[in-house]
Fold this protein.
Amino acid sequence: MNASNNRLTSSTSPAGAVRRASAVGLALAACVTASSALATATAAPVTDRGTNTATGAGLDRYYRQHLAWGSCVTGPDDTVGRELDEAGAQCADVTVPLDYAKPDGRTITVAMSRLKATDSRHRIGTMLLNFGGPGGTAVDTPPLMRKAMKDVGARYDIIGFDPRFVGRSTPLDCGWSTGIFFRSAGPDRAGFDRQVAFQKDLSDKCRATNASVLPHVTTRNTARDMDVIRGALGERKISYLGYSYGTYLGTVFSQMFPGRYDRMVLDGAISPQDYGPGLLRDAVSENEQALADWAGWAASRDTTYHLGRTRDQVLATVDRVNEAASRRPLTIGTGSDTYRVDASQVPLLLFMMLSDDGDASRAELAAAVSVLSEAAKGKPTRPSPAFTQSLRHVLTGDSSPTGSVQTAILCGDRAAPRNSESYWRDVERSRAAHPRFGPMTENITPCAFWDRPREEPTQVRHDVPALIVAATGDPRTTYRSSLKLHRELPSSKLITLTGANRHGIYGEYGNACVDDQVNRYLATGKLPAKDRTCAKRTTGHQD
């Protein structure tokens, strides 16, 4: 998720808020089969040595298409477009086939923005951006990344693109009444049974409205679109910066199109082995720790938030909120912005605010828990604008397109277990060790009712000299998963940030040690001689 209406929490950068909200979506899947005929039909087009155009497979017209760059403004209310224009960016749409096995069939468009290199004499090349999700936009991000890249930013053409069916690209909307499908199973079997019905209804709505499109909403097809972008831009290779799910997309691209990438930075990286139904489950310990660390922060500010004077007291307040929501939904807000929050939704609201350990984000979570605590006592509440936006995003259909495409990508990439009883058993087992988040991370999802994917999931078979950035306390894509990807890519190098419960570091967290190392790599193309370690909020580095 990466559209302006999905920026659920304030941040040092808009892009950071976008990605943290969208990181909720990193979770599903299992195993999948595909016919060898399809695998052959959708194979990457062959590129002539020394050219930028595809040959064979009927894809030449896509790789050779003319891109009509112009204003980014799409209408009188398009503030993002105006800001891009003011920053010197231009926008264009690239046409791609809906189904790469049928290139003469239906086409869709992928929206892009571009900041051209201003230091043309020392131009390095083109860099594509992805801020995760899945389903996150990046059209609005080139100006932010040029600033993060400092002097080296002027040497790149920086491309933000909205993946197929995201943002300004050809849309997908299942007409949901919710923005995010993630929910907790609740306190009992009745709550879980309601979740089974809820998640099946979401799946049924997508199938009823978009059955012909859903099989093509996949990461592998987004990677194919990226290679069309590369060809249409006239580039032999592209550099890439991906965060969160965007690291998985970058890895998929590198495996499908070896030799067509230059410099690659993967921040908050996921091993393809972990991109599946256990992803958020595997991060439950990190989220419990992040919540405990936040509770300690809030306890030291009890005179402001009144949540408890010790960490345990603050956590007890959180538990009382969830227990109250289990008995009856909590009423939050007034007038047209009144929301009813039940026990299936409270853990998600907390979870969404735990991906940043900065004071501003922790203050937002404390303010939100204060509101929830007052509602649990039956008192009137006045949530902040940021919390109101979170409630609207989760509980209404305002963000249905974002939730629809995020789900379609996750369910389209890998199949999920289909037996609801297996989810219930996992939910019950999780309660003892992880009572706050286990029933959410183990809960059933729409993918249990989705049509099975047509392609096998991507496996790492090619080494990639990427630069991986990871925080030891990342509560979304765990440090363990980043280490696993590092092992799978022996030529990669790893920058570890210690002591941070943070998802997404480079250019957003303000850590000079990380930023300097990444920018040095982007400028020279040379990875560090060995893995490096940076400490939270320091300017030096440790070997």
